Amino acid sequence: MQTERWKISVGGIVQGVGFRPFVYRLAGDRALTGFVTNTPDGVVIEAEGQPAQLRNFLDALRKEAPPLSQVGEIVVVSIPLLHDNNFVLGHSTVSGPVSTLISPDVAVCQDCLSEFFSPNDRRFRYPFINCTNCGPRYTIIQRIPYDRPHTTMRDFVMCPACQREYDDPSNRRFHAQPNCCPDCGPQLGLVAANGQRLAEREEALSEAILRLAAGDIVAIKGIGGFHLAVDAANGQAVSRLRQRKNREAKPLAVMVADLAAARKLCRLETMEEQALESQERPIVLAAQKEGHGLAEEVAPGYDQFGLMLPYAPLHYLLFQGPVRALVMTSGNRSEEPICIENREAEQRLAEIADCFLVHDRGIHLPCDDSVVALQGGMIRQVRRSRGFAPKPLELGETGDMVLGVGAELKNTVCLLKENQAFLSQHIGDLKNLEAYRVFQKSIDQLASLFEISPSLIVHDLHPQYLSSRWAKEQKIVPTLGVQHHHAHLAACLAENHHEGPAIGIILDGTGYGPDQTIWGGEVLLGDSSGYRRFGGLESLPLPGGDAAVQGPWRTAVSYLFAAYGGNVPDLPFMAPHECGMILSMVQKRVSSPMTSSCGRLFDAVAAMGGGRQVIQYEAQAAIELMQAAGGLGEEVFPCEVYEENAMLKISVRSLVREVAQAVQAGMVYSEISRRFHAGLVAVFTSVVKEARLREKINTVVLSGGVFQNRLLLEGLTVSLDRVGFEVLLHKELPCNDGCISLGQAVIGRQALKKR
User: Fold this and answer.
1) pLDDT per residue as tens digits for the range 339-360
2) Is the pTM of this model over 0.70?
3) Which of the listed CATH numbers 3.30.1330.60, 3.30.70.100, 2.130.10.10, 1.10.3210.10 matches domain 4-89?
């Protein structure tokens, strides 16, 4: 009978996810001989048998793959017969170029949970239960191939029972690299704030649960780092956490035991429930219910909760006590990266936590919880991190290896290799040495895992950003500066596999312009090869720079002066402030850089209308202004548009006068907000219609952090769709600066093609 032998190379996420035992079983079911092995390229199979069975085997590889796998390219080559007697699992090979992918960290699976809650199972209540279908991945990997010696589990020697599972191709834990049990794996410990060891194993867990119920702040080591946990129904405990962490008002994430508990706190849409229960287990921003029962201090002045469900086995155990909802916020001080090491946490969090629930499984790379929100009929990323990174984005074309180092805020880094973009986890704000170290380590990790040596490093134009300074210090590799908002435009185009050109409405708080002013309310024309500024908000003085960002009332006074000159109306919000100082600064142009920022426009309108005067976290005034609206109004504050220096300028001054007149007439804050939002939708629609008329471009990109405002995003999308535009939005990346590194990288790759 005719037989053939095929060499089958499988790329994608196919290591550490049960792919080899899956292949082994498929081959056995079809009476094939040969072998399967891990290589730096992915999985290589040599299969010998009848052609019909080989074709059936090949079809099943893709259609029946394990849940955590992501099968990429499959290459098949016919090779000489070897006449093997059976099908075997080969050892991993470590030499050669790397092209395999790494699975993100995912939630514990249902099979493991069934064992976890079974009293007769040897892993009953064991906080580190896992298998090839779940558990830590990216945060424990130090290099590939993904084998135990290359992970932080290398110090734990498997007991005979675990080793048998690990060696058995028919077992769910075959080659599960974090495989362990209570006899041979990591263990819990409870440590006091003074460093004293208080309890071990089950006793440590029981004591931590009691302390949470008593109102203590417990630092809990998880998969990607530490959380600071406290009873979310205990207002005093939450206030104490805020005070110690120096996080006055920004909403805190809440974990509950299951979907039923989540439904008691929030009004959940079907897609939000699906996101909560997905294997990525992100924080989901969802509308609060009345009578939710949580402390007001969890999310003061905010109409949503950031909800998440347990994803590590330990989390399930925390809800075995009386506490029904836990604040689970990142284990760090404000503006610092999350802690990952026990000793580091005990030092950096000693003045915040009352005790530490730790374990001895190492974390190689910090990884915050991801955050998503339902906007525009789709779950969209707000912070892309655990559960999603380092899963690559597929690009529409291939090219040189390029590194994009991101922006200053919400930093991520991105490495391009062939037709894939590898983005790091959310790194955060590069404002201190600890964050800068994580930034450097994240670049090293991605470059090492995927053997990427960039031909070009791309950075933001702002010369003082730490990411830009790092790029320029890399003397061996050429660098390229890219304008911030151009990177936003290019990122959204790349994510949507659209070559452009497109009209980009890019709205955010700040971005350094080549004219050395602060941009942020832009209408651009372009693609990854270049752009020009077609229009946008007119630039006005920002008195005190960052001081005005923290104090929206300052921006409001400046904009009123720009709108009225020396006859600034005496609005109620001005009474408690030293407005004369601000008026003097903007008149004399002292420490008052020019800005077209849409974020600052939101601040000014909020302050003028009687809203937030001084913010305690980023975009607080704008968020509260949006919440006050409750929806878009039919009436709008009209904006004038004029042409200057070949640009269509949206007159901020005319809009400010409309708001001031509304305040003087006694209009309520909610109506001011509705008309303001509706006015922005109308004027930006008008400007891009003119761009289409002049440039014959019908595609519009919406990007920038301001588009986290659901009223503006949904209102503008509907308005543009109504007049026939193709509207591109972010899907897999945040619209905020978390997407900047991708935009930088694709612009850099395009620049290399021109050389």
Assistant:
1) 999 999 999 999 999 999 999 9
2) yes
3) 3.30.70.100
